[in-house]
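Quick log. Single chain, no ligands specified.
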Amino acid sequence: AAFLAAAAADPSLAAGIYPDGHGGMSEPPPGALTYRPSAELVALTRATHCTCTFPGCSVPAARCEIDHIVPFDHNDPRAGGWTITSNLQPLCHYHHQAKTLKLWAAATLSGDGIFWTSCSGLRRITPSTYGTVMVPDDFVHNRPPTPSPDPSTDHYYQHVDDGHAPESTPAESTPAEST
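-> predicted structure:
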């Protein structure tokens, strides 16, 4: 809320910390002037943001396209946004198209957050999820912790039907009582 208020007072903040897409560097590092990021750079981008960075979108980063926040210039790669960590984000196809069509603009904030501004003036921030485990909203933990990892005493293992669970022995039958 504080940043949104500050950006309303000073519109230059909406450009982010690296408005040129060069990550604060004067010389491009290896690979920065090529359009396609390396596998390592893709993995780091997806680890920094576990989902599409558009506000409220929950498409997993693994199913997203990798987007240059400041567009890559194919005619003059040195002048455009470079292919570096601070200039990449995962976007689902739908939100990538919205950005390409200039319906929304994105900028990198300090701490790897993404500042979004719509063409109508709406502003939103998507924080980084770096190092965060994303747990679904409908997750319910229904297994109480047990002190013993012994499969013969751990109820979790007794209910897992994966072919590796210990076999249960049939209850011994008791002789029928005579009447």
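Residues 28 and 126 are 27 Å apart (CA to CA).
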